[in-house]
Design a protein that fits this description.
With 209 residues, the protein is α+β, with helices and mostly antiparallel strands. The protein has five helices and eleven strands. The strands form two sheets. It has a seven-stranded antiparallel β-sheet. A four-stranded antiparallel β-sheet has the order 1-9-10-11. The structure holds flavin mononucleotide.
Length: 209
């Protein structure tokens, strides 16, 4: 019982510190903040699941971290990813006509950081590459791998949307989903674990570690 009480205290204090950092006083876009800066700031508040898009460059496995992906349709199973037009990954996916979408678990932070380094080669070797599960590469720490065939390519502003028909799905490992928000990695905590008080029941259901 003591341990459970302590766990609640730790979770509450963790949420409080997260709240302090996120709930800065409300302010509108100030005159010196451009729409681009305000947009970036607003999107940093959109916590999302982390994925690594995989492809091949020079016939070697390659991966880049993204959050801009979503389910589009179930019949046929279809997903969408959004990649910066200037990225080497974008050119590789366009050339290959296929991509892997690795949904990351909490064990995949190091790989997600590696695959997010701007302007750096993103070849997947040890320790980031997992055993092959499909035609497209899979990364360590993936909790689901979607093997996708590009069916449509849609340039939008400075990004390219790749619509992918899902040819196969595998579940290489099991772990809580890895999230990214407020420029940090997070993991989910079931809301009921925070249910010590009425306020906690309505609290943000994730905490940092
Ligand atoms: C958590 C996270 C999410 C990201 N999401 C995207 C995304 O959805 N699309 C994208 O093009 N880049 C995204 N990036 C940036 C890429 O991972 C990468 O750093 C950037 O595009 C530069 O890659 P480059 O070396 O190809 O220039 C994200 C980075 C992080 C850390």
């Amino acid at each position: 019982m003591q341990n459970i009480v302590d766990l609640h205290a730790v979770l509450r204090s963790s949420l409080a510190s997260l709240g302090d950092r996120m709930n800065t006083p409300a302010d509108d876009m100030s005159d010196d903040m451009s729409i681009a800066d305000a947009f970036r700031r607003s999107m940093s508040l959109l916590t999302a699941s982390v994925a690594v898009v995989t492809t091949k460059v020079e016939d070697r496995p390659w991966g880049m971290t993204i959050t801009a992906c979503c389910s589009v349709s179930t019949a046929p199973p279809t997903v969408l990813i959004s990649l910066g037009e200037a990225s080497a990954t974008t050119h590789a996916v366009a050339e290959q006509g296929e991509y892997g979408l690795c949904l990351m678990g909490t064990g995949g932070v190091a790989t997600a950081e590696f695959a997010a380094a701007p302007g750096r080669p993103k070849f997947l070797d040890e320790p980031h590459l997992a055993a092959p599960v499909a035609a497209t590469p899979c990364v360590r720490g993936a909790i689901a791998h979607l093997d996708c065939l590009v069916t449509r390519t849609i340039p939008v502003a400075d990004h390219v949307l790749f619509i992918g028909e899902v040819r196969g799905v595998s579940f290489p490992s099991s772990a809580p989903t890895l999230l990214y928000g407020a420029r940090e990695f997070h993991r989910t905590v079931p809301a009921l674990q925070l249910a010590g008080t009425e306020t906690d029941l309505h609290a943000l259901a994730y905490s940092m570690w």
